[in-house]
Amino acid sequence: MKLLLIFIAAALFFTSCKKSDYKSILHDPALYSRTVHELNRVVMGNNFSPVVASRNYAYATVAAYEVIAAGYPQQYRSLVGQLNGLKAVAKPPTNLTIDYQYAALLAFCKVGEAVTFPEGSLKYYTDSLHHIAVKHGMPTGQISNSEAYAKAVAASIMAWSKKDNYLKTRSATKFAINDSPGRWIPTPPLYGEAVEPHWGEIRTMVMHNAKEYRVPQPPKFNVTDKNSKYYQ
């Protein structure tokens, strides 16, 4: 019995001596920058076009922001009702302790992973964040609560993203190529296809319609007349 008490006392001592500096690491803005870079590696490694990549980053970033906005409502306003189609985002339970910075990182990764491929592309990174939280003393319950909330917010953002018409444009007709003067054609060395010719059909974030902001038509293609607006 005496040995058991000694063992329990020793265990409690070492537990109390465990570092609890997780905030200095997980709340560091530089870690968020590194997290964005991890998604950037996935995007570039799988050759997403810059146009599609912008969508990937946008949804992941909104997810992270919504977590922070929920945790600090006096400082940040939710984007619900401000972004087109975003009608609701999961709210945090009022009776649970959540580390919103940690949850924001996870929500970013979960959405970033969902809008890219392959499946599980950021799991190694989210596992490393979990390890940091454990190793540096975040309470077990808080870890679980934070991870659950990140998952809930990510699900809300993914449900919203699926209604932006992106999937429909994947099967849309490709840009028609012909030899009309001034019309775009594939060029060396890649001879790639036209990038996202139907991108204008994607739901806008803030504008109701891209036609709200009209720009002047470009001058008519003409390289034979040195006095033409195009040539000049």
Question: What structural keywords apply?
Answer:
Vanadium-containing Chloroperoxidase, domain 1; disordered N terminus; mainly alpha; 232 residues; 0% strand
Task: Tell me about this structure.
It is built from eight helices and no strands. With 232 residues, the chain is mainly α. It has a domain of 147 residues: Vanadium-containing Chloroperoxidase, domain 1. α4 packs across α7, α5 runs antiparallel to α6 and α5 runs parallel beside α7. The N and C termini lie far apart (95 Å). The N terminus is likely disordered.
Short précis:
With 232 residues, the chain is an all-alpha fold. The protein is built from 8 helices and no strands.
Portion of residues in helices?
40-55%
CATH topology of the domain at 20-166: Vanadium-containing Chloroperoxidase, domain 1
CATH class of the domain at 20-166: Mainly Alpha
Please report the number of helical segments.
8
Element-level helix/strand string: HHHHHHHH
Strand content: under 5%
Biggest sheet features: none
| Integer average pLDDT | 89
